[in-house]
Amino acid sequence: MYGPNAAEDLEEHLAILGKENLNRIRAANERKISGYFFDRRCVEFIFMACDHFHFTPDVRFATVCLFDAFMTLHVNSLWRYVDENCRTEEAFLKDWSAVETKLSGQVVLRVVSCIQIASKLSAYGTQLTVASAKDFLQHMGFCYTEEQILKTELRVLKTLNYDVSIRSPLAYVSTLLRLIANDVQQFGFQSISTTCQDVLSFVFMQWDEIFESILPGPIADQEKKQKIATLKADYMLLAGGVVASAIELSPDLCNEPSALLSLSKRCSIPVEKLKDFRANVKNSVFKAKKSNMQPIEQRSSVTKK
């Protein structure tokens, strides 16, 4: 599918992603990242807002990652400030309760700011203008001036120290797909890519459940939390599991054994481990169907309306 030079470029890009992935896992082991704000309600709202503006999938996933990174730093900073300035536990609890109330009221505005930033980083489509952001916020029942919206976007950027080079798992998925398409003769790239986006959307909304199900059995709470945090930071495993799921859902579009072998080789993860991740996604889909959550195959048609 790709010429030798293009394939080499993809391999180099995957190597860069691999290094970033190792750094992210290392940071998770050192408890420097959380992923706490991959909360289903937050993710669903972000997806809804991005669909409202007709943004491409890269914006929705980048927004979730930006929002999580910002809120983690922001909340930790506020926690330290309250902790350092309260002499008693009673005073701390009272002040922190007030902070939580204020934070809850600002979530929608913070999300919109992250969408603005993510849309500017996207190689596709248009950017979210301040005027459009203001109209959306008014539609949601919030009255902010354009100046307030600009200041909030700046606040997010400052908190992130202007480092917005936060890579979403979609970058890993897309690179792996292109390399598999280069390795395997029969591979319906476009259709499988769309299925990957649907699977990844589902995983984002079932984030905690899927990763917690990977580690069954009796493990001490603190140890299990740390292992789960490390798993959540492994975007290569996530991308591999998502692609493996999409391959299984597309039996007529590729040779599954060949595609899985190529995937395993490219992401350096054993086929059985990829299948295990895929099985956890399938189990989560079955549970979601029982609880009336939209299954993967219906999700894309709903979001396009």
Your description of this structure?
The chain is globular and about 60 Å long. The protein has 305 residues and is mainly alpha-helical. Residues 297-305 have low confidence and may be disordered. It contains 14 helices and no strands. The protein has two domains: 35-159, Cyclin A, domain 1 (Orthogonal Bundle); 167-303, no CATH class. The chain has helices spanning 4-29, 40-52, 57-85, 89-121, 130-139, 146-159, 169-183, 189-205, 207-213, 221-233, 235-248, 256-267, 271-290, 296-303. One of its GO terms (biological process) is reciprocal meiotic recombination. This is Cyclin N-terminal domain-containing protein. Residues 41-164 form the Cyclin N-terminal domain.
- What is the tally of beta strands? 0
Average pLDDT: 90
Share of helix, binned: over 70%
What gyration radius follows from the Cα positions, in whole Å? 20 Å
Terminus-to-terminus distance: 33 Å
Shape: globular
Report the sheet with the most strands, covering strand number, pairing sense and barrel closure: none
Give the amount of beta strand, in percent.
under 5%
Number of helices: 14
Provide the succession of SSEs.
HHHHHHHHHHHHHH
Structural class category: mainly alpha
Uncertain stretches: 297-305
Oligomeric state of shown chains = single chain
The tally of domains stands at 2
What layout of secondary structure does this protein have?
Elements: H1 4-29, H2 40-52, H3 57-85, H4 89-121, H5 130-139, H6 146-159, H7 169-183, H8 189-205, H9 207-213, H10 221-233, H11 235-248, H12 256-267, H13 271-290, H14 296-303
Helix pairs in contact: 1-7, 1-10, 2-3, 3-4, 4-6, 7-8, 7-11, 7-12, 8-11, 8-14, 11-12, 11-13
